Amino acid sequence: MIDVDTNGSVRTVTIDRPAARNALTIEGLEALEAAIDDADEPVIYLRGRGPAFSAGADLHEVAALEGDRDRAADFARLGQRVARTIEDSPAVVVAGINGAARGGGLELSLACDVRVGTPESTYGEPGVSFGLFGAWGGTVRLPRVLGEGDALEFSLSGRSIDAEEALRIGLISRIEDDPQSVAEEIAENPSDTVAVLKRRVRDDGERATQERREAQAFGDLVAAHADDIDALLE
């Protein structure tokens, strides 16, 4: 269900279940977590096989929970854990959204550092229409990305939006025919600097603490790249 391929500094992780629109079972979530957690590459490119990024949770898996609230909560916690693994990865994770991103699939993309859609990509949180909602960290991350008003409208309506609207409201940062090119573009930069930038932008400490860490990180990079800086002046 999860394929892993490495090309230079980019690890490509593919959700490979196109017949089910790349819906994720418990096994698939655990395999995705391992593929992210095991990465040594500075950049991870996350994509779906075929015409969808991911439909999110496999509804057959949800139905098999048979109304058991404890098991359902455990399933939600697993999805949350995978999303945190993506968010906390030392690597920069780029989501290449090549088609439909729905529910948990959209939520996993929200945990990525960069989201790039193709012109055909679409986005939605349809769970509200059948009495559910995305519980893989979506209610936490969506307001951070969109702001509270747009997050509420988007999730409460259950509607789908296209790539242009997703770009307008900030759900994705770019539209590209080949989203992987963005991952490769990032990977061309020094890997230590890429990793530091992710940590600094993701830092949720108090402002004074963030600024102290920022200054220390800048000092470390200046020391590490002294020769590169000198070369720029020649």
Task: Give the tags.
alpha/beta, 11 helices, ClpP/crotonase-like_dom_sf, 2 domains, 2-enoyl-CoA Hydratase, Chain A, domain 1, Enoyl-CoA_hydra/iso, globular, catalytic activity, 234 residues, 50% helix, 6-stranded mixed β-sheet, 4-stranded mixed β-sheet
Using DSSP, what is the number of strands? Answer: 10
SS content category:
alpha/beta
| CATH homologous superfamily grouping of the largest domain | 2-enoyl-CoA Hydratase, Chain A, domain 1
Named CATH topology of the largest domain: 2-enoyl-CoA Hydratase, Chain A, domain 1
Descriptive account of the structure:
One of its GO terms (molecular function) is catalytic activity. Belongs to the enoyl-CoA hydratase/isomerase family. The chain is 50% helix and 18% strand. With 234 residues, the chain is α/β, with parallel strands linked by helices. The protein has two domains: 2-186, 2-enoyl-CoA Hydratase, Chain A, domain 1 (Alpha-Beta Complex); 189-233. A six-stranded mixed sheet has the order 1-2-3-5-7-10, sandwiched between helices. A four-stranded mixed sheet has the order 4-6-8-9. Strand 1 and strand 2 form a beta hairpin. Helix 1 packs parallel to helix 3 and helix 5 crosses helix 6.
Short description:
With about 230 residues, this protein is α/β, with parallel strands linked by helices. It is about 50% helix and about 20% strand.
Write the layout of secondary structure elements.
Elements: E1 2-7, E2 10-15, H1 26-37, E3 43-48, E4 52-54, H2 59-63, H3 69-88, E5 92-97, E6 100-102, H4 104-110, E7 114-117, E8 122-124, H5 138-146, H6 148-157, E9 160-162, H7 163-169, E10 174-175, H8 180-187, H9 191-202, H10 207-224, H11 226-233
Parallel strand pairs: 2-3, 3-5, 4-6, 5-7, 6-8, 7-10
Antiparallel strand pairs: 1-2, 8-9
Helix pairs in contact: 1-3, 3-4, 4-5, 5-6, 9-10
